[in-house]
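Per reviewer request, we include the raw input and output of the structure prediction for the construct analysed in the revised manuscript.
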Amino acid sequence: MGTTLLKNARLVLENEICEGIDVLLKNGLVAEISNESEIPDEIIDLESLRLLPGFIDIHNHGAVGFDVNESSTDDLVEIARFLASKGVTAWLPTLVPDSDENYRRTIGSIDRLMEKQDNLPIAQALGVHYEGVFANERMCGALRPEFFKSFKNSNELSKLPRLKTGIHFTTLAPEVENGIALVEKLVDQNWIVSIGHTKADTKLLDEAHSAGARHLTHFFNAMTGLHHRNMGVVGWALTKNAATFDIIADGIHVDPKMLKFAVEAKTVDRVSLISDSVLPTGLGDGDYEIWGGKISVSGGKTQNEKGSIAGSVITMLDAFRMMKSVGFSDSEVSKMASLNPAKLLGVENSCGSIETGKRADLVVLDENENLKMTFVGGVLTGA
């Protein structure tokens, strides 16, 4: 792999923005910042465009006509190619509750994707996110409760297919049968456990947090809200300093003013942005079949046959734009879109920020938040 010098970047770092910076990419990594030591094979003059770390989407069900639950390896490649064209350089393919047979098939597809993706300029799958295998039926949202599982003993977990390698992330409700024991067992098996689709009370939430479930999935959605006499899951999360959460910044799942409130209350360091995108993303309004039913997309809002919102049709780039529009800075939104998800997944030593020795997963934006370039492992994707 050759060397590429990105000249005259407006470099977006964790706590500052540096003007007129040169960044050398070599062997898929950020080799040097502001210190030319060799003549590169290629020079790209960014002309003061912003250079940011690539976005990391930890909750993505699909896009451009492909649903993760039904995808072949080739389908997943097309999702990942689309994501890279929108600035996503790493992601977790996310499964909704399904049959064991379909779980096995899809996990096999993700395994094969991870074996071949290194040589492709596409968003890199880091593992898998099982959403709602163990969830509260009264907070199912768009999930299918007929596929929810119970946890009576450890054998229940052994039936859940695992990848050959990579991150295993799951969203669950701690109030399910033996929920705290379930959290403990998952943590023992190196799963990242997130709380969601839940009506748990504060006592149980505290127990789940102590057991290792320290994050919450799509904050505000599919959880009990805040009331002055009953703080609910939302109130617990806002007041539990050590807890983190992710949030769908589409302006539909959560009102833009509430997005701003939630992040300011929790602090930028404890919030991750997600897309929660589904199959129609990138295709526009219309009617689509997904998860054994139909959903309609109108004006960028999804709705299933029950009248519930059924995921989003945004990308992480849209989420970035939304958070900028409500008043957060480039560095702050970059943390929420890149560094914080990397920390949550435990991969912050290799990605999530622009530092020497880290993967050259980068995005270039103009002054109007338009994506001009995406680099995955130092390779320009052609976005």
